[in-house]
Amino acid sequence: MAAGYLAEQGLAPEYDVATPEKTVEDGIAQGIVQVAQSAVAASFSELAHTGQCSVRHFAQINERDGFFLTAREPTRSEFDWHDLMGKPLLIDHFFQPLAMFRYALHKKGINFNELDVIDAGDVAQIDAAYRAGQGAFVHQQGPYAQQLEADGLGMVVACVGDVLGPVAFSSLCAAPDWLETDMARAFKQAYRKGREASRAMPAAEIAQLEAGFFPEIDRDVLTATIQSYQSLGCWEGDDTISRSAYENVLDIFEFSGVIQQRYDYSALISAPSEKA
C-alpha cells in the first residue's frame, strides 16, 4: 500500500484493523473484506469445531516469530535463556506468541511452569506495566521492544524467532472463490513485489514509506525494527507457506496442547500449484 504497488495493479485498497467485534472471518464471509492478515494457527479453532476452514491462507507474510525479549538490567554480556529463571517475566499471553514462546523455552530445556510469569493484559498493557517497573524481562513484538531500548529502559537480548527457525507465523487469507478472480491475481502480483522490497530495500527507506502507519513510533526506532526483521529472515524466500514451516507450527501448537490433532496442509492452505 505505502509504496503504491497495489495502485500499479489498478487496485485502490482500504485499510482497517480487525477487532473482536469485526473479525477477519466475519469480514470475509460478509464480502466486505477481500484480503486479511491472519495466521494459519488462527484457523485451528474453526477446524476443531466445524471440521473445515472458511478461509484459505494463500501467502506467507513472515516466516519467523518476531517477538523479542528485553532485559531491564542485563546481568552478563551474552544472554542465556536460563537467565529467566527466578526473575519476574512479562509475557504476551495471546495464543500464538504464547505457544511459540513456550516451545522456544522447551527447545532451550526450560519448563515454562517454573518461571515467574506475569500476564498484564494486551500489548499496550504489557508495555505500560514494564514501563511502570514490573518485570525483569518483557516479551514483545517490534517496535515495542526497540522503543524500550531507545528510551533507555532495557536491552533487547533475544528473539524467539532465532530459536524456532522457519514457522508459518503470519499469513494472508481470503475466501476461496475470491482467489480465482482477476482482482486476486492483481493483488498477488503487487504483494510479491512488496514482499521482495521488504527484504531488499534499505530499512530506512521502508521506514520512510511506512511512517504513516506508525505515527507514535520514532523513525529511527522503526528503522531499527525493520533491520532486525530483515536480519532475522522474516521475509526470506518466496510467498509460499511451505509444508515444512507448517509442520513446525503443528509441532508448536501440539506441544502446548492447543491442538489435539495434526490438520492436513490442504485443509486450510492454498498449495503453490493453486496460486496465480
What does this protein look like?
- The two termini are 20 Å apart.
- The longest helix is centred in the last third of the chain and has 19 residues.
- This protein has 276 residues and is α/β, with parallel strands linked by helices.
- It has two domains: 159 residues, D-Maltodextrin-Binding Protein, domain 2; 98 residues, D-Maltodextrin-Binding Protein, domain 2.
- Helix 9 packs across helix 10.
- Strand 4, helix 4 and strand 5 form a beta-alpha-beta unit.
- The strands form two sheets. Strands 5-4-6-3-7 form a five-stranded mixed beta sheet.
User: Strands across the major sheet, in which order?
Assistant: 5-4-6-3-7
Summarize the helix and strand pattern as letters.
Answer: HHEHEEEHEHEHEHEHHHH
Strands, count: 8
Radius of gyration: 19 Å
User: Fraction of residues in helices?
Assistant: 25-40%
Instruction: Supply the number of structural domains.
Output: 2
Shape: globular
Q: What share of residues are in beta strands? A: 5-15%
Q: Please report the first level of CATH classification, the CATH class of the largest domain.
A: Alpha Beta
Structural classification: alpha/beta
- How is the biggest beta sheet arranged? 5 strands, mixed
Q: Averaging pLDDT over every residue, what do you get?
A: 94
CATH architecture of the largest domain: 3-Layer(aba) Sandwich
* Fold-level CATH name of the largest domain: D-Maltodextrin-Binding Protein, domain 2
